[in-house]
Write a structure and sequence with these properties.
The complex is a heterodimer of chains A (152) and B (551). Chain A is of the alpha/beta class and 152 residues long. Chain A has four helices and seven strands; from the N terminus they run βββββαβαβαα. Chain A has a seven-stranded mixed sheet, with helices on one face. The N and C termini of chain A lie far apart (54 Å). Chain B folds into four domains: 104 residues, Sulfite Reductase Hemoprotein, domain 2 (Alpha-Beta Complex); 158 residues, Sulfite Reductase Hemoprotein, domain 1; 95 residues, Alpha-Beta Complex (Sulfite Reductase Hemoprotein, domain 2), CATH 3.90.480.20; 139 residues, Sulfite Reductase Hemoprotein, domain 1 (2-Layer Sandwich), CATH 3.30.413.10. In chain B, a hairpin with a 4-residue loop joins β1 and β2. The chains are: A alpha/beta (152), B alpha+beta (551). At the A-B interface, α1, α2 and α4 of A face α1, α2, α6 and α9 of B.
Chain lengths: 152, 551
């Protein structure tokens, strides 16, 4: 059974592996209206329209687990369009891609067979080099890796 | 050279644990072959014809003696006593056990090394001039910017699942030794009006569609380097083709959009990213540059005179100096290239013993640093001129003293069908057969500067398109054939070679190459190089000679 996995813990912005069971109801962008109360499902190559931003949830369907276009879609929705609702990865969601998805702004993912990955897979790194959706500054701005901090 | 801080070390340590868990999940049947393929490729692990192959990252080709000793240890302990220097300045091991790879990575992490993103459809190891930081003709040392890009591209949230592999090279010297024209992104770093700036080329590449990169931005200030790269990567990640792997590189996208169209799209994207937190601060740039400040060079009074005396007394040494020693920024010092291209040894293959020896020499005759060149040779960047003779004698004993840098026997060659499961044909025996007929030094020297590049398939790991003579292995109905091109070049005035005609059997290749040499020697004007001769007279005279007599 597909299961919804939360990627963002509301308190601290990190993954907690919590599942709330039911994937959101999504409609293809062509059929969706704001009145439906449902979320929109976007393809990885869809142009983002301003009207979509009213949807309570946006699903981005990964056609293959190694197709990175959905990651760019998420970054654009969050950073360019300021989308604040739920952003859900759907389709070919593979557990090892979840930590990229989280950093690109996905708040949840639909696990196709419902198996919840272990913590090592969900959060393999305690920190990363780059700025991203969950971390506004790159590491070198946060922990002082400048001229004064060369190890001896 | 760059030294990890606690964050870098934490990241590679966590990478080891991460890859160990992925390997265990695969061995336990929790990951499919296809899933594990994508994951292991992002950590440099291929499954090859005979065994797995692990490609270890040597960021921009720079190693310390300690790191090279660790590579020797890995060759001895986990492999069959040798490694292979790749054309991306990395080191490959051909015989590791899959289950032992996490242990190899753990060993590498103890000396600040890894195998992250050395394969797969992601941003690969950034390459540069093997003489970076020491070359006499260098305007700006490119290494700080290589390291900034290495860190930014490591497990990037958005750009680790691209349509295809992505290669970036930087050059900061007058003479481009980094082949920036044939990279997905080529960067030329310059100092203009006191500011560090980059000229950005995009869409160059080899493979099935060899093309020269197009200039899409001039004089990009260093603070904008990463945001501008992000703009390029986003356009490529979104719009690069994913339906056909042969049309998936950025070069195809750039040409489909036209250079102007691509540039406009990148600029549009960049308008949103410019000034974002990925913008480099002065402190970040200065901090990184501080890692690459020139070392304290002890003064070497009389070193230049001592070298002159050594050259006079030993003609063989003088010959090696002439080809394999390059000018250094610092008076009294020189850059020495230790050629792996002795006839009878696969180009780029080095034994654990040779690695240990090179590590020792780097300390005894240099300042403890080693480079790997994209021509698959070792380079010692800081040798006292008065120490070159001792280095040369030691190198002779280890078969690393061939006086052939840049000559026709300094062949760039991929592992080919002997090892690689992608190859259509073998490449190592072809290199050896060509080298074997060039044993006469006077003849070799008379041919002068001549790059021969051999690839066992269209993936072009041997960069055959930019060889002055390029040889490509092709498969025709299950038989190995070789296609020959001439006139390619990878430096400042880069060009893609032209195929001279139908392909040949392997046994015919040395004879064909010999005839190409004959035409050159007969047609050249004064001391004109092979490349200039081909550019002047064209392919036709070569074609006529090769095919008339071969028929």
């Amino acid at each position: 059974m597909p299961k919804l996995l939360k990627l963002i813990d509301d308190a601290n912005g990190t993954s907690n592996g919590a599942t709330n069971g039911t994937p959101p109801q999504l409609e293809p962008a062509g059929q969706w209206t704001p009145e439906s109360g449902k979320g929109i499902e976007l393809s990885v190559d869809a142009e983002i329209e301003e009207r979509f931003l009213a949807a309570p949830a946006i699903g981005i369907e990964f056609p293959a687990f190694n197709d990175g276009r959905g990651l760019s879609q998420a970054v654009l929705l969050r950073s360019r369009h300021g989308y604040q609702g739920d952003l859900v990865a759907t389709g070919a969601v593979q557990p090892d891609i979840l930590h990229y998805m989280r950093r690109c702004g996905f708040s949840a993912a639909v696990l196709p067979n419902g198996d919840v990955p272990d913590q090592q897979t969900l959060a393999p790194y305690s920190d990363y080099y780059q700025a991203c959706a969950t971390e506004p500054e790159p590491v070198s701005r946060r922990i002082g890796r400048g001229a004064s901090n060369i190890p001896t | 050279m760059y030294r990890y801080d606690t964050f870098d070390q934490q990241f590679v340590d966590e990478r080891v644990a991460h890859f160990r868990s992925q390997t265990e999940r695969y061995l336990a049947g929790e990951l499919s072959d296809d899933e594990f393929l994508q994951l292991r490729l992002r950590n440099g692990l291929y499954i090859q014809r005979l065994a797995p192959m692990l490609r270890v990252a040597v960021p921009y080709g720079t190693l310390s003696s300690r790191q090279l000793r660790m590579l020797a240890h890995i060759a001895r302990h986990y492999d069959r006593g040798y490694g292979h220097l790749s054309t991306r300045q990395n080191m490959q091991f051909n015989w590791p056990e899959l289950a032992e790879v996490p242990d190899i990575l753990a060993d590498l992490a103890t000396v600040q090394m890894h195998a992250i993103q050395t394969s797969g459809n992601c941003i690969r190891n950034v390459t540069t001039d093997e003489f970076a930081g020491v070359a006499a003709d260098e305007a700006v040392d490119p290494r700080p910017y290589c390291e900034l890009i290495r860190q930014w591209s490591t497990s990037h949230p958005e750009f680790d699942w691209l349509p295809r592999k992505f290669k970036i090279a930087i050059s900061g010297a007058d003479d481009d030794r980094a082949a920036v024209n044939v990279h997905d992104i080529g960067l030329l770093v310059r100092r203009r009006d006191g500011e560090t700036v980059f000229d950005v080329l995009a869409g160059g590449g080899l493979g099935r569609t060899p093309v020269i990169g197009l200039l899409i931005r001039e004089a990009l200030p260093v603070r904008h380097l990463l945001t501008y790269l992000e703009a390029i990567m986003r356009v490529y990640n979104r719009f690069g083709r994913r339906d056909n792997k042969y049309k998936a590189r950025i070069k195809i996208l750039v040409r489909a959009m036209t250079a102007e169209g691509f540039k406009a799209r990148v600029d549009e994207e960049w308008a949103h990213l410019k000034g974002s937190p990925s913008t480099l601060t002065d402190d970040q740039v200065a901090g990184m540059e501080a890692h690459f400040q020139p070392p304290e060079y002890p003064e070497r009074p009389g070193a230049t005179a001592a070298l002159a005396a050594d050259r006079l007394k030993d003609a063989d040494f003088a010959r090696w100096v002439r080809h394999n020693v390059s000018p250094h920024k610092q008076a009294g010092y020189a850059i020495a290239t230790l050629s792996t291209k002795e006839t009878g040894t696969p180009p780029g293959d080095v034994s654990d013993r040779q690695m240990e020896a090179v590590a020792d020499w780097a300390e005894a005759y240099g300042l403890g640093e080693i480079r790997i060149s994209h021509q698959q040779n070792f380079v010692l960047p800081d040798v006292g001129q008065d120490q070159l003779y001792a280095l040369w004698q030691a190198a002779q004993a280890e078969r690393l003293a061939a006086p052939n840098r840049g000559l026709a026997t300094d062949i760039i060659c991929c592992p080919g069908g002997d090892y690689c499961s992608l190859a259509n044909a073998k490449s190592i025996p072809v290199a050896e057969a060509i080298q074997a007929q060039l044993e006469d030094y006077d003849y070799l020297h008379d041919l002068g500067e001549l790059d021969i590049n051999i690839s066992g398939c269209m993936n072009a790991c041997g960069h055959h398109h930019v060889g002055h003579i390029g040889i490509l292995g092709v498969d025709k109905k299950g038989r190995e054939y070789y296609q020959v091109s001439i006139g390619g070049h990878s430096g400042n005035d880069a060009s893609v070679g032209q195929i001279i005609g139908p392909s040949f059997f392997r046994d015919d290749v040395p004879r064909v190459i010999r005839r190409i040499f004959d035409v050159y020697l007969a047609q050249r004007v004064e001391d004109e190089s092979f490349l200039h001769c081909v550019r002047r007279i064209g392919v036709e005279p070569f074609k006529v000679e090769v095919y008339a007599k071969a028929a």
